[in-house]
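Class, look over these structure tokens:
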Amino acid sequence: MRIQEALRLPAEPPVRSAAPLPSAGDRPAALAFHDVRFRYADDLPYVHHGVTFDVPARGMTAFVGPSGAGKTTVFSLVERFYDPESGEITLDGRSLADWELSSLRAAIGYVEQDAPVLSGSLRDNLLLGNGEAADDTLAGVLKTTRLDGLAAKLPKGLDTLVGHRGTKLSGGERQRVAIARALLRRPRLLLLDEATSQLDAVNEAALRDTVADVSRTTTVLVVAHRLSTVTMADRIVVMDAGSVRAVGTHRELVTADPLYAELAATQFLATGG
């Protein structure tokens, strides 16, 4: 969906008075949607019907809801693959349209559910995010993403070849490589789009711990469908049919929102949209 969206996107969305973002990594970003309405084309139904929510700087915010609820579209709008038809999206209190597009996207890290790992060494794959990363920065990210142990046991450490498409790594290791790659760019906002959906329970738990660590210093947004991922979030945004129906913690929502309670009871939060 994201590739098709990008192909339909104008090369440069309009900018009212472009200003550079603070340097990536200077501080985590605060994000807010204010009554956002959006559809992909004039002849298509609205995907968002007045979506409103606030994400404070730092911490993890999870988006859940049935297929077609508009969860992944949140990410497309944050990255300005599209602009809302009405309403406003702000970063640090300023409209996204006022930021330089290049610096906005440079401040965002994105990890999808099947993150690509290329042939070459583990080091090569990590440094795709920032080829100028210092050794101590790389060491810190390896520790945060729990890849330091992997590197230590590989025959050539970081210079070990990972095989075609990372076949010598487990699914969880490949996802952690993708998150490490994103973190080496020192993003102010990290977007995880169904990043754990294809992992087994052991790898999913390891990645969940990684995300918890990352969220202590970075603003993390997660589109998730596994209950185990959602329960650790600082806040959960429950979406349904293009609207936000509830915001709260797992403990609050499981008693206050019938849709969330139903999704939680299945132990499986529906994917898509």
